[in-house]
Design brief:
Mean pLDDT: 89
Order of helices and strands: EEHEEHEEEEHE
Number of helices: 3
Radius of gyration: 16 Å
Helix content: 10-25%
Strand content: 25-35%
Strand order of the largest sheet: 5-6-7-8-9
Oligomer: single chain
Largest sheet: 5 strands, antiparallel
Shape: globular
Low-confidence stretches: none
Distance between the termini: 35 Å
Structural class: alpha+beta
């Protein structure tokens, strides 16, 4: 499959071209384990991500090519109010009550490598994210800057 396939859209996110395959395109890319003749890094992890988080409207998984690499790398993104945040997806554990809180996203500064965005600007971007509370004990999850992927009633 070529990167200009109509089932793949691309956007510039933080100055970097990010390719967003459709569900059908992901299936073909993961089957071939490549895109545009270049290998896709960690295809099994990508398949797991798509299965676990792909159903959430605010979660996006894109592919990027770093200048220093001859392969495609996945990029986890959270889209809120039309803005993308580079994040890590997880089932966060509350530091107060030690219970799992559900699928969520937390800021990932490492994912900004290669964007030439200054670290203070990255942190300022993350400051726009709302702080959430644990659905069990209602303590604010300040440590992780957690953003829920779905409201508690949607689960």
């Amino acid at each position: 499959m070529n990167a200009d396939d109509p089932r793949i859209r691309y956007e510039f996110v933080h100055g970097q071209a990010v390719y967003f395959p459709s569900t059908n395109a992901w299936a073909e890319i993961l089957s071939e384990r490549a895109l545009a003749g270049l290998p896709v890094s960690l295809p099994d992890a990508i398949a797991g991500w798509l299965q676990q988080y792909g159903q959430f409207e605010v979660a996006a998984l894109g592919l990027v090519r770093a200048r220093w690499s001859a392969q495609w790398h996945s990029l986890s993104l959270l889209r809120l109010n039309g803005h993308y945040y580079r994040v890590h997806f997880e089932n966060v554990v509350c530091h107060n009550c030690n219970q799992r809180c559900g699928p969520s996203a937390t800021p990932d500064t490492v994912a900004y490598a290669g964007t030439n965005i200054d670290s203070k600007d990255i942190w300022a971007e993350f400051d726009r994210l709302p702080l959430q509370s644990c659905p069990h004990c209602h303590e604010v999850l300040r440590h992780r800057q957690t953003v829920w992927l779905a409201s508690p009633d949607a689960a």
